From TrEMBL:
Annotated TM spans: none
GO MF terms held by the record: 1,4-dihydroxy-2-naphthoyl-CoA thioesterase activity
Protein species of origin: Salmonella enterica subsp. enterica serovar Wilhelmsburg
InterPro entries, A to Z: HotDog_dom_sf, PAAI_dom
NCBIfam families in alphabetical order: unchar_dom_1 (TIGR00369)
This protein's GO CC annotations: cytosol
Annotated protein name in UniProt: Thioesterase
Superkingdom of the organism of origin: Bacteria
Family matches, as Gene3D superfamilies: Hotdog Thioesterase
Length: 80
């Protein structure tokens, strides 16, 4: 089974790391993460950018899919 630390290690040199997305909770039926609203993720008016929200949703969806795949399989996000 993967741990939060395992998921954190996979984010190195990626959009996930750049946006500051971190896994905060991982269990049998739960996966939670946080992303800061700062210079990396806000739009010019200081509000959370919709693209950053989409990146967070895609990240969690892909992580959840990955956690449910069998050895040798890979899940990918095809639509947001």
């Amino acid at each position: 089974h993967l741990t939060r630390d395992d998921l954190t290690a996979t984010r190195q040199n990626s959009l996930v790391a750049h946006l500051g997305i971190v896994s905060t909770r991982l269990g049998d039926d739960v996966l939670e993460a946080e992303m800061p609203v700062d210079a990396r993720t806000h739009q010019p008016f200081g509000l959370l950018h919709g693209g950053a929200s989409a990146a967070l949703a895609e990240t969690l969806g892909s992580m959840a899919g990955y956690l449910r795949t069998r050895a040798g399989q890979c899940g990918v996000g095809a639509e947001v």
